[in-house]
Amino acid sequence: MENIQNNTENKKTILVTIVIGILVLSALVWWARGTSVPQQAKVSPTPDAETAAINQDIDSINVEDLNAELDAIDKNLQGL
Question: What are phi and psi for residue 13, nearest 5 degrees?
Fold first, then answer.
């Protein structure tokens, strides 16, 4: 009879230990989620400033020089 009581007490002790462990783990997870650092929003240039910069780069390309270079390459190819 004493053996059955000890066995029952051991099962209760194990069950209580498991329940306490689950509660502690749950509390740690809940605490970790609550203390996470919020992500900061990325700051990007306004579309107008970005568009203006792209347009300025496009306008600064000298197409006439490119055409002259391509004409020189064409002449070299024809000479082969």
Answer: -65, -45
